From TrEMBL:
Keyword entries, A-Z: Signal
A Pfam family of this chain: Polysacc_deac_2
The keyword Signal is annotated on this UniProt entry: yes
Organism of this sequence: Pseudoalteromonas prydzensis
InterPro entries in the cross-refs: Divergent_DAC, Glyco_hydro/deAcase_b/a-brl
Signal sequence extent: 1-18
The name this protein goes by in its record: Divergent polysaccharide deacetylase family protein
C-alpha cells in the first residue's frame, strides 16, 4: 500500500521529460577483465551489470559508484547449452530453494551498490517457474528490480516477478550479437525506432572493444537526435508510474 501511495503521489510530480524518447543501455558481463574499467569512460547515464565473484567486480563497483553510474548484478543462470561455462555464483535447476537463495544472497552481498538484477545466460532456468519464484522472493525482500535479458522467448521471469510484486522490465535489443560497424548501427537504429514508437527502449551490450569504440562515437549523437539516455531504474520507475496512472484513471472512471 505504501508503494502504491508513493506512485500515486508521484503522478502529480512526474517530470515532463518522461513523456519523451528515453533509452537505457546496460553493459553486461562486467568484471572479468581489467579493460572493463575503461567502459566507465563512456559518456552519459550508462548502466552496468557486474558478474559476481569476478576479479574486477569490486573495484568496478566502487569506481562506478563514485561516478554515479547505476549498477546491476549480472547473475549467471543455467543455459540450455550445458557446455557453456556459467562462471562463479551460478543458479542452476538442480539447486534446492535454500541453495539457490543462499547463492544469490551471497552474490548480492558482494555488490551492495546494485539497484537491480538481470540474468547472464539463463535460457533454461528462466523457463522454470519454481527457481524464478525463489529468485523473486530474494529480490522482493531487498527491494531490487529485475531486468529480463530475454535469452529465451519462453522466459517466465517477468510473469513470476509480477506475481511476487517485483518491479521488472525486459530487454528490447541486443546491440552487439554481431560485432561489426554495420550490425552495430543496424541494432542502434532498431533501438531508436523502438524508443520513437514506445517513448522508451532498453538495450543490452557487452564490453567488447568494438562495441565501446562504437558507443563512444554514437552516444553523444543521441541527445542531438531527440533521445534521452537514462539509468535503467528511471525506466522501471516510469513503467510503474504509468501503471499507477492507468489504475487511477480506471478507479476515477467508475
Amino acid at each position: 500500500m505504501k508503494k502504491l501511495a508513493w506512485l500515486l503521489l508521484a503522478i502529480c510530480s512526474l517530470p515532463a521529460v518522461a513523456a519523451g524518447k528515453q533509452i537505457a543501455i546496460v553493459i553486461d558481463d562486467i568484471g572479468n577483465h581489467q579493460r572493463d574499467l575503461e567502459t566507465l569512460n563512456l559518456p552519459g547515464k550508462i548502466s552496468f551489470s557486474i558478474l559476481p565473484h569476478t576479479p574486477y567486480s569490486q573495484i568496478f563497483a566502487r569506481l562506478a559508484s563514485q561516478s554515479d553510474k547505476e549498477l546491476l548484478l549480472h547473475i549467471p543462470m543455467q543455459a540450455l547449452d550445458n557446455s557453456k561455462a556459467l562462471g562463479p555464483g551460478a543458479l542452476t535447476s538442480d539447486m534446492s530453494k535454500e541453495q539457490l537463495q543462499h547463492t544469490l544472497g551471497n552474490a548480492l552481498a558482494t555488490l551492495p551498490q546494485v539497484k537491480g538484477v538481470n540474468n547472464h545466460m539463463g535460457s533454461a532456468l528462466t523457463q522454470e517457474s519454481q527457481p524464478m519464484k525463489w529468485t523473486m522472493e530474494v529480490l522482493k525482500k531487498r527491494n531490487l528490480y529485475f531486468l529480463d535479458s530475454r535469452t529465451t522467448g519462453l522466459s517466465q521471469a517477468q510473469n513470476v516477478a509480477n506475481l511476487y510484486g517485483v518491479e521488472n522490465v525486459g530487454r528490447h535489443v541486443f546491440l552487439d550479437n554481431i560485432v561489426n560497424e554495420q550490425q552495430l548501427q543496424f541494432r542502434l537504429n532498431e533501438l531508436k525506432y523502438k524508443a520513437e514508437r514506445y517513448n522508451f527502449a532498453i538495450a543490452i551490450a557487452h564490453p567488447y572493444p568494438e562495441t565501446i569504440e562504437f558507443l563512444q562515437r554514437k552516444l553523444p549523437e543521441l541527445e542531438q537526435q531527440g533521445f534521452e539516455l537514462v539509468p535503467l531504474s528511471q525506466l522501471v520507475e516510469r513503467k510503474y508510474i504509468q501503471l499507477a496512472q492507468a489504475e487511477h484513471k480506471g478507479v476515477s472512471a467508475r
